[in-house]
Amino acid sequence: MTKILVTGATGQIGSELTLVLREKHGGENVVAAGHKKSPHPRLAETGPFVTLDVTDRAQLEKVVREYSITEIYHLAAILSASGEQNPGLAWRVNMEGLYNVLEVAREAGISRIFWPSSIAVFGPKTPKENTPQDTILSPTTMYGITKVAGELLCEYYHRRYGLDVRGLRFPGIISSETPPGGGTTDYAVEIFYAAVRGEPYTCFVRPDTVLPMMYMPDCLKATLLLMEADPRCLRYRIYNVTGLSFSAEELAKEIQKRVPGFRVEYKPDFRQAIADSWPRTIDDSAARADWGWKPDYDLPKMVEAMLKALRRRKERGEL
Q1: Which of 1, 14, 265, 301 is deepest in the core (most CB within 10 A)?
Q2: Is the pTM of this model over 0.90?
Q3: Residues 188, 124: one domain?
Q4: Is 194 in the same domain as 131?
C-alpha cells in the first residue's frame, strides 16, 4: 500500500497537493507535515498531520518509521525573497532538509521521491527566451544556489543508489487558496487579492517584467503526471515545465477588464534584481515529449478562474 509523506504541507503547493493526494490514495495514507504554521482545517480534518523540522533527521526518521512511508513529496523550503533576507537559514532548510530526506529514503527503502526545483536555478548567463532543458545554471540568489545543488544531489542519489527522485523546475505558482510565501513572483498572486478586496495594488516589479508562471491546477497536474510516468520514459531527473508567460502590466490589464477601476502602481524593490536574472519564457519540450505535459490555462482563463475563486472565498468571509 502507498503511504505518502508531504513535507511543507502548509505551504502554497503542499496545502493543495496534499488534498489531491488524499483524494487519490485515501486520507489516512497521506501524512501532512508542517513546521510552524497551523494546518488549514481541511489538512487537519482529512488525514494525519505532524509537526516536523526537516533539518532534524531523527524527527524525520521517526515519522517515516511510525507511518510506514513509501513515498515522499519533499516541499519544505525557504523561497527566493525570504532566502535573501536570511541566506543561512535558506541553506540549512533547503540543503540539510533535502539531504536528510534522501538519506532517510535510501536507508528505509522508500520507492519514490518528488522534489521541486525552480526557475531560480537559471541566472544572467542563461538564455532569457525559451530557456532550454540543458543550459547554463548561474543563479544569483541563495535559493537558486540551493536548487542547483539540490538537482545535482538528486542526480547523484539516483545514479549512486538507484533512488527514483523526480522533480520539476517550477515557475511562479499562482493559487487562490494559499497566500504567497516569500517568493519573487508573489506579486502575481497578491494583485488578485487586492482586486477582489477593492483595494489598489503596489507592484514590487516594473510593469514590463515578464516571468514564466503556472496556475495551481496545472502545477498539480504536472506533478502527478511526472510521478505516474513510466521510469523508462524519463531522460531527466528534473524537468523544465511552464504554463504561461506575461508581464506584470499585462496581468494588471487583464484583471482591469474584469474589475473596472482597479488601480495598480509600480514601485520596484530588491526583488526586481532577482526577477531580472530569471528567464522570460521556458522551453519545456522535453517534458511534453517524455511524459505528455501540456498546460490547460492561458492568461485570460487563469485570470477568470482566480477572480471567481477569490470572490467565492470573500463571500464566505475568508478574505
Answers
A1: 14
A2: yes
A3: no
A4: no
